[in-house]
Amino acid sequence: MAANTTPRARPAKRQKASSQPSDSGSDQHSDIEDQDTHSLNNDESESDHDEDEDEAEDEDDEINEAGDDGSSSVEEDEEEEEEEEEEEEEFKSNVTFSQLGLASWLVNALKAMSITSPSEIQTKCIAEVLAGKDVIGGAKTGSGKTAAFALPILQRLSEDPYGVFAIVLTPTRELAFQIAEQFSVLGKTINLKDVVIVGGLDMMTQAIALSKRPHIIIATPGRLRDHINSSGDFMNLSKVKFLVLDEADRLLTETFADDLGGILEVLPKKRQTLLFTATMTDAVLELAQPNPEDPGKPLPFVYQCKTAVSTVSTLTQSYIFIPSHLRETYLAFLLRSEEFAKKSTIIFCGRCQTAETVRVMLRELGIACTALHSEMSQQERLNSLAKFRGGITSVLIATDVGSR
């Protein structure tokens, strides 16, 4: 957590993967072809950094094979499930957002989004961030991690507004846009200015946006470091108050180590550092230990959620057993059925190639659809999301990139 040191990155632990070829890295060439090479002389680093982002996105596209363990009896499995159920009871907060110290304008913004009660990670972390502490928070996807750091940052920004106030780093482009969307909605009352800096988009346009001194920068490490290296002293980050690492377990790996270190070098030592992750890896927990290079620095507040993320009561979950060679036939039948015809549908696939194959098949069958995967350029991804959100197409075929 020390401001003047690079976090020690460790390779991410991975399960056994199938021998299918990796889908990563194939879109970085098309991503950078349209950029102005005469304006910025860092095409090689751009390509490397775009590849890092796509590698991070495609790690989730591989199909994991879980090994069969015959040593566990049915009784032991049942006991373990019972223990997990006891630990993962639904969390019910006994405090309000106001009691956590949030201003009334933020509470009203949350009410407008139909959010009236804080989640567990928000209950435990918001007050600590407002108290000026470094925070390491662990919670599952969908638990409200983004609001847990966005709300206190916006409150502190409203008290002393200037740019650049906070930097949020994420491993993937889609997550960066998702976080920016939440900041924009919550910060509308204070006329928040935010910018997304990721690979696959024009660097000159991004440089112009950065020159306007936005309050919040949401970025992938590689592209932000490109701008830092190319702008010289023009991009002054010496007054940044908050550094956020979202999905910190993935950022603290060798993939992002160099870029993260380059960013930390230009940030002030006196700042708040907030780490949020779904998985508490050794690399993350190591930052909660005393730093011998800065013995006087207080230890961060660390909290790991133990409760389950509950689904809405109206959600119906079901599965169908069918022969694998009839899977596409049943899929097309369901999408054409009266029940699905007028509904928005997301189809998740394990690989980019599979997603593209399904897209072509459905289009040939007359079903309007669009795809979202890492082999598409960033502009193509944004266009696909816009079509789906706007109702132009009701079917989205995606890899795990779409879940973000």
Automatic annotation (TrEMBL):
GO molecular function terms listed in the Swiss-Prot or TrEMBL record: ATP binding; hydrolase activity; RNA binding; RNA helicase activity
Keywords carried by this UniProt record: ATP-binding, Helicase, Hydrolase, Nucleotide-binding, RNA-binding
CDD domains of this UniProt entry?
DEADc_DDX49, SF2_C_DEAD
Q: What's one Pfam family the UniProt record gives for this protein?
A: Helicase_C
Q: Return the annotated region ranges for Disordered.
A: 1-95
Outline the extent of the DEAD-box RNA helicase Q domain.
95-123
Superkingdom in the source lineage: Eukaryota
Chain location of the short sequence motif Q motif per the record: 95-123
Q: Which residues form the Helicase ATP-binding domain?
A: 126-298
Acidic residues: bias regions: 43-90
Which SUPFAM superfamilies does the protein's record reference? P-loop containing nucleoside triphosphate hydrolases
**GO terms under cellular component:** cytosol
What Gene3D superfamilies does the record tag this protein with? P-loop containing nucleotide triphosphate hydrolases
Q: Which residues form the Helicase C-terminal domain?
A: 314-404
Q: Where is the composition biased (Basic and acidic residues)?
A: 26-37
* Family from the record: Belongs to the DEAD box helicase family.
Record protein name field: RNA helicase
